[in-house]
Amino acid sequence: MSKIHAAITAVHGYVPDYILTNQELETMVDTNDEWITTRTGIKERRILKGEGLGTSDLAVPAVEALLKKRGIGADELDLIIFCTTTPDRVFPATANILADKIGAKNAWGYDLQAACSGFLFGLATGSQFIESGKHKKVLVIGGDKMSSITNYEDRATCIIFGDGCGAVLLEPNDEGNGIIDSILRSDGSGVPYLHQKAGGSVRPATHETVDAREHFAYQEGQAVFKFAVTKMADVAAEVMERNGLVAEDIAWLVPHQANKRIIDATASRTGVTADKVIINIEKYGNTTNGTIPLCLWEWEDKFKKGDNLILAAFGGGFTWGSIYLKWAY
Ligand code: UT7
After folding, report:
1. Is residue 156 domain-shared with residue 215, that is, in the same domain?
2. Are 202 and 162 in the same domain?
3. How far is Cα 66 from Cα 233, in angstroms, rounded to an integer?
C-alpha cells in the first residue's frame, strides 16, 4: 500500500477592504514611500476596521469560501488548527470561536503560536493527524489582525504589518502528492529582539503598561533581519538538499513575506529564479501567519498537480522552518 500523505485539497484567503498606503503612513509617522519601498518592498497593507472584530472575523470569510469551493460542510471538519499571534482573546482558543461561527460542530481545535512561522508549524502538525489515519479533514488557518498589536507611533514597525488570513484543507492523498518533508526550528534566545512586552503572565496589563505602549509588537529590526536572512535561506536550501532537489526541480518558492530583501536572499541561496518566487508583499505587507496561505490562495490557479513547492518562514521566537510539498490538484 502506498504511503498516505497529507495534501492541500483547497485553499482560500481573505483580506479586509481598507487599504493603508505608504502615503497615508507618511501623514502618521516620519517616513516616506521611497524608504518603505526600498527597505521592505511594501506599498500598502490591509487593515480590519470596525469595533469588536478580531482575527476570527478574518478567518470566517476565508473558511466559508474554502468549504464552498471544496463542496463540503463545516460539520465534516475533524480538526481546526488556528495559527495566530493575535488571537481573539487570551483564552479561549480562536479555533473554538471560529468553529462556533462557522458551525463546525464535530471538530476539535486549538491555537498554535509560532509567530511568523506559525502556518508552517501548523501544516506540519496537522499533517500528522492525516498521515496517522486519525483524521480525514484538517483545517489549517494562518491569520492575524496585526493592526491590533501595531504601534502606529513607531515608524520602525508600523510600516511593516498588515491584517489578513488564509486557510487550507488537508486530506489524505495516496498518489504521492502532499506534504513530503518539513524542517522546523526554534530558539528562545531570540525573544529580546522581537516580542510583545506586556499582556502575558510575566507582565499583565496595568495602567502603566498601557501608558508605556507595551501592548504592541516590539522589534529590533536589524538584529531580526540578520537572523532571518540566513536562517530562512539555509533551511529552504536544507530541505531541498535532503530531498535531492535542485533549483530546476522547484515549480514555486513560497516565502514568508516579511521583507523583499529577505525573500530575494532566500531565492538566491536556493537558486530558484525570480519567475518562480511568489511575492505579494507590496499589497499586504507582513500579515504574520497569513503570508504563506495568502500566497497559496493568490497563486492557486497557476499551480499544477505534482508541482514541487518549497515553503519557508522565519519569525519571532525565534522560529523558522521550511516545508517541501507536492501540489495535489
Ligand atoms: O516577520 C517576522 C520577522 N521580521 C522580519 O523578518 C523583519 C526583519 N527586519 C527588517 O525587515 C528590517 O530590519 C526593517 C524593515 C524593520 C528595517 O530596515 P533596516 O534597513 O534594518 O533599517 P534600520 O532599522 O537599520 O534603520 C535605518 C535607518 C535608521 O536611521 P539612522 O539611525 O540611520 O539615522 C532608522 O531610524 O532608517 C530609519 N528608519 C526609518 N526611516 C524612514 C527606521 N524606520 C524608518 C521609516 N521611515 N519607517
Report:
1. no
2. no
3. 31
Please give the positions annotated as active site: 116, 256, 286
The total domain count for the chain is 2
109 and 164 housed in the same domain: yes
Domain that holds residue 61: 5-175
Question: What is the phi/psi pair of residue 163, to 5°?
Answer: -105, 140
What separation in Å is there between the alpha carbon of 130 and the centre of ligand 1?
41
Q: Which is it for strands 163-173 and 194-196: parallel, antiparallel or unpaired?
A: unpaired
Looking at the whole model, is its pTM more than 0.90?
Answer: yes
| Helix 221-242 and helix 260-270, axial crossing angle in degrees, nearest 10 | 30
35 and 155 both lie in a single domain: yes
* Atom of ligand 1 minimally distant from the CA of 224: 8
The pLDDT profile of the chain, 329 residues, written as one tens digit per residue, is 579 999 999 999 999 999 999 999 999 999 999 999 999 999 999 999 999 999 999 999 999 999 999 999 999 999 999 999 999 999 999 999 999 999 999 999 999 999 999 999 999 999 999 999 999 999 999 999 999 999 999 999 999 999 999 999 999 999 999 999 999 999 999 999 999 999 999 999 999 999 999 999 999 999 999 999 999 999 999 999 999 999 999 999 999 999 999 999 999 999 999 999 999 999 999 999 999 999 999 999 999 999 999 999 999 999 999 999 999 99
